[in-house]
């Protein structure tokens, strides 16, 4: 017998009514979607007076002014482009969508106002294309947002694809296509921003960089699993300007970019004058907030004038990358401190017959550098590559695969320097240099390496020990007495 509490109620209660929010179809607010009519007012009307979930059905929606989304006033909001079937044609200046909030705190929950959680959290734009039809048209801009989420967005022929400005927190940009924009794919512009993930996106053919950071204070930036390529002037047939796939400039007052990972990306380009794959530069005095606490790991990086160019940085680790086919240097360090370069392979996409693409690392005016476990192989020597001539890139005037100038405390351990032209290692005015357990050899049928090591200038407390060093066409290592190098147990077959 069932207990009274388990007996079936003989009079069932009526079912609860299910309230399913209706999405605000912008055509219900007057949008036409034929690519000719001006749908600005209709879309703004849907944002202002709809239910917060704005759906753009398949079509082409031409706008001439920015659609402003004030999350503080409106409350939680999402823009959906029907799995990419909808397109915004931005025929006016400024962003197609500007999302604004009021958050002035940090990412600490105690710094949030009630309105942030009630109205402003996680504004979302998904599955939408934006095409520019004005020279100053942008894609999306975020100002003082919390948890802004941009997913499945395609932006092309605009100025900036996505611009983050002033202050933002906890931003996610994923599965986006930012393609052939006249300025930058993702622009972190004078923004105070902590916690941002840029993942699984194609960021290509943007004239002034794939990801560009200027005048900003950034913490906790993850750039992971992206294809970041060809971000320079070439596709735009414009005058070359210095650029990079990832460009970070912290020289402005109070600017700093720290706590960053660049992982598992393809970062490559067509060569351009003063172009880099990754370019990071800070203030000359290496102040406390110099670019640092960075890791660059597991990427394919190549085919630019310079690969990774670090200036005035302190505290970076580079490991597990394949770095290839650069026209001056694979890595260049200037006035840097505490840099670890380990377990990377430096080589080439292919070896063009009878031509030379430079390979090498240059370290200048730097201290506390560790280089371990790298394989650095040059290409056959020959005339400059034709791409240099076409792009007005000055051929590299390098002295060695690894150059060290006016630097102290550099450890080089367990490395292979192969097929160098002209020298494998060149050092000048260097102290506390420790080169151990490495191999220097020319494996070509007709050797072209002139010297395995050329060590000049003044120095102190330098050690060259337990290495396998083959002679070059000009003979054994050339080491100046003034360099004060102690040599021990080196094999010279």
Topology:
Blueprint: E1 24-25, E2 34-38, H1 40-49, E3 53-55, E4 59-63, E5 67-70, H2 71-74, E6 78-80, E7 86-90, E8 94-100, H3 114-120, E9 124-132, E10 137-146, E11 149-156, E12 162-174, E13 177-179, E14 186-199, E15 202-204, E16 211-214, E17 217-224, E18 227-229, E19 244-249, E20 256-263, E21 266-268, E22 276-281, E23 292-297, E24 300-302, E25 306-311, E26 314-319, E27 322-324, E28 329-334, E29 337-342, E30 345-347, E31 361-364, E32 367-372, E33 375-377, H4 386-390, E34 400-413, E35 416-418, E36 423-436, E37 439-441, E38 451-456, E39 462-465, E40 468-469, E41 478-479, E42 485-488
Parallel strand pairs: 1-3, 2-4, 3-6, 4-7, 5-8, 6-9, 7-9, 8-10, 9-11, 10-12, 11-12, 11-13, 12-14, 13-15, 14-16, 14-17, 15-18, 16-19, 17-20, 18-21, 19-22, 20-23, 21-24, 22-25, 23-26, 24-27, 25-28, 26-29, 27-30, 28-31, 29-32, 30-33, 31-34, 32-34, 33-35, 34-36, 35-37, 36-38, 36-39, 37-40, ...
Would you kindly provide a written description of the structure presented here, covering whatever features stand out?
It is a single chain. The protein is mostly beta strands and 493 residues long. The chain has a domain at 399-493. It is elongated, with a radius of gyration of 28 Å.
Structural class: mainly beta
| Main sheet specs | 14 strands, parallel, barrel
> Which residue ranges are poorly predicted, with pLDDT under 50 across at least 5 consecutive positions?
1-11, 14-22
| Fraction of residues in H or I helices | under 10%
Question: Going across the major beta sheet, what is the strand order?
Answer: 14-16-19-22-25-28-31-34-32-29-26-23-20-17
Number of helices: 4
Q: What spatial form do the alpha-carbon principal axes imply?
A: elongated
Q: What's the Cα radius of gyration?
A: 28 Å
User: Whole-Å distance between the termini?
Assistant: 96 Å
Mean pLDDT level: 91
Oligomer: single chain
Count the beta strands: 42
């Amino acid at each position: 017998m069932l207990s009274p509490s388990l007996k079936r109620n003989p009079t069932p209660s009526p079912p609860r009514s299910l309230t399913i929010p209706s999405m605000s179809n912008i055509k219900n607010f007057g949008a036409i979607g034929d690519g000719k009519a001006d749908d600005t007012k209709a879309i703004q009307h849907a944002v202002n007076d709809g239910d917060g979930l704005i759906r753009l059905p398949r079509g082409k929606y031409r706008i001439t002014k920015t659609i402003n989304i004030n999350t503080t006033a409106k409350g939680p909001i999402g823009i959906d482009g029907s799995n990419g079937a909808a397109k915004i044609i931005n025929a006016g200046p400024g962003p197609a969508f500007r999302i604004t909030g009021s958050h002035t705190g940090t990412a600490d929950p105690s710094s949030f106002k009630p309105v942030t959680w009630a109205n402003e959290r996680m504004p979302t734009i998904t599955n939408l294309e934006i095409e520019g039809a004005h020279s100053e048209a942008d894609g999306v801009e975020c100002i003082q947002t919390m948890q802004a989420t941009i997913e499945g967005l395609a932006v092309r022929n605009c100025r900036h694809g996505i611009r983050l400005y002033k202050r933002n927190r906890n931003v996610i940009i994923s599965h986006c296509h930012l393609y052939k924009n006249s300025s930058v794919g993702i622009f972190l512009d004078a923004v105070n921003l902590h916690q941002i993930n840029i993942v699984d996106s194609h960021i290509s053919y943007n004239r002034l960089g794939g990801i560009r950071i200027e005048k900003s204070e950034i913490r906790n930036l993850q750039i992971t699993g992206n294809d970041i390529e060809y971000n320079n002037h070439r596709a735009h047939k414009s005058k070359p300007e210095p650029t990079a796939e990832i460009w970070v400039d912290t020289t402005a007052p109070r600017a700093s970019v720290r706590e960053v990972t660049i992982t598992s990306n393809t970062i490559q380009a067509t060569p351009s004058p003063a172009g880099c794959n990754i370019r990071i530069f800070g203030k000359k005095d290496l102040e406390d907030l110099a670019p640092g606490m960075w890791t660059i790991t597991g990427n394919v990086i190549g085919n630019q004038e310079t690969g990774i160019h670090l200036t005035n940085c302190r505290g970076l680790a580079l490991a597990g990358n394949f770095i290839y086919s650069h026209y001056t240097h694979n890595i260049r360090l200037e006035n840097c401190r505490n840099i670890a370069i380990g377990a990377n392979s430096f080589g080439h996409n292919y070896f063009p017959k009878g031509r030379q693409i430079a390979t090498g690392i240059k370290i200048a005016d730097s201290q506390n550098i560790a280089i371990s476990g790298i394989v650095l192989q040059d290409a056959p020597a020959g005339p400059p590559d034709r791409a240099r001539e076409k792009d007005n890139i000055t051929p590299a005037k390098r002295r060695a695969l690894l150059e060290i100038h006016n630097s102290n405390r550099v450890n080089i351990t367990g490395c292979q320097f192969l097929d160098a032209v002209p020298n494998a290692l060149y050092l000048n005015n260097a102290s506390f240099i420790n080169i151990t357990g490495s191999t220097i050899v020319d494996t070509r049928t007709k050797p072209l390496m002139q010297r395995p090591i050329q060590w000049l200038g003044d120095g102190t407390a330098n050690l060259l020990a337990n290495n396998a060093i083959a002679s070059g066409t000009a003979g054994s290592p050339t080491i100046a007495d003034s360099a004060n190098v102690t040599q021990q147990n080196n094999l010279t077959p």
